[in-house]
Amino acid sequence: MTHIKFLTKNKNIVAFEISGHTGYADWGKDILCSAISAISQSACLGIQKVLKINAIVNKNDKTGYLKLVLPKNLSDELLKKSQIILKTMQLSIEDLTFDYGDYIKLEVQDEIY
Questions:
Q1: Confidence at residue 80, expressed as pLDDT on a 0 to 100 scale
Q2: I need a labelling partner for 80 at 20 to 30 A (CA). Which of 10, 15, 34, 52 fits?
């Protein structure tokens, strides 16, 4: 099962963490893991490369781990722009969870940062 956690502060997503493989199919053939990976890595690219935010990113492809943390001193403008990417990611993951809830555990923790 893949565990996905979004961490928020003042209703803004400030971090996310993904761990584990879904178990939907064999490693390397798991379309659900691929979907989660594509969504989350696209969000990381948008944050880092498009918005030029120096976020902390840790990942391990073999274990299915990915974590992104926004800097605490982010300007209001960049925080607002980052939310477009991160909330789109959250909606995409929620949609996958609706269809594949046996393989994904989604959690949102408020006021953690």
A1: 98
A2: 34
Tokens found for residue 69: 């943390």
Distances (CA, A) of 4 to 13, 64, 83, 94, 111: 13, 11, 17, 10, 17
Contacts 24+ apart (CB under 8 A), 92-100: 92/39, 93/4, 93/36, 93/39, 93/40, 96/32, 96/35, 96/36, 96/39, 100/22, 100/24, 100/32
Contact, 103 vs 24, CB < 8 A?
A: yes
Note whether 51 and 44 are within 8 A (CB): no
Return the structure tokens found at 39.
């969504």
Q: What is the pLDDT of residues 11-50, one digit of tens each?
A: 999 999 999 999 999 888 999 999 999 999 999 999 999 9
pTM: 0.92
Specify whether the CB–CB gap between 3 and 105 falls below 8 A.
yes
d(C-alpha 113, C-alpha 28), whole Å: 34
